[in-house]
Amino acid sequence: MILGDRKYSHSPVPSQSFIWIADYYDNSYSSEFDFDTKKTNSFYDIERDKLMQFGLIGEGSQVFFDVANGVFNINGHQIMISYAMETTEYPLTGRTFLYNDIITYKEAVSDADLFTRKAVNGRFNHTITSYNIGYKKKMELEEVVICFQNILTIPFNEALYLQIKISANQDLSGSLIIRRDGLIVDTIPAPLIKDMAGIINWEIK
């Protein structure tokens, strides 16, 4: 087990500030790079049926979510999300669903060097600009079907934020409720049109 153990908070390779970690319920784990050999491992080899937690470590931090409930843990703080109507609140995280349709990717830029004959990496210099991790989930909540995607983005030299994408099988006039350690920290009006997705970037507070 790696996630939750604060001694694992740095990337083992100099080429990446963060690496993904997949913790399994049998106390084993997979990592993007082996801590000893530095050999890379494939995201597609992650055993999703055994997955307990999925996240990133690096730069002295750990960010991850519990597959059993979709709740993000960011350096010890829990972030929960729900969708609230006038009389009903639909928890989008914190339920006993399996959030194992996991997502991770990096964004990068490349600078071309057209004048140096022996430039490193050919003639291009690649720089990672953000690390992203999260999941997507389709859930039936009473008479409403909601498709929910929740991705944490760690951009270079900027504040962390959640990319929250949500759609429903009917028109809804509600708000996103975001809680930090159980307390409401933001309420965002988020009316939905049937089968059309809405996207909100929420800066971590």
Note down, in words, how this protein is organized.
- The structure is a single chain.
- The strands form two sheets. Strands 1, 2, 3, 4, 5, 6, 7, 12 and 13 form a nine-stranded antiparallel sheet that branches.
- 0% of the residues lie in helices and 51% in strands.
- It is globular, with a radius of gyration of 19 Å.
- It starts with 18 loop residues before the first strand and ends with a strand.
- By secondary structure, it is mainly β.
- The model has no long low-confidence stretch (mean pLDDT 92).
- A hairpin with a 2-residue loop joins β9 and β10.
Features:
single chain, 205 residues, mainly beta, nine-stranded antiparallel sheet, five-stranded antiparallel sheet, 14 strands, 0% helix
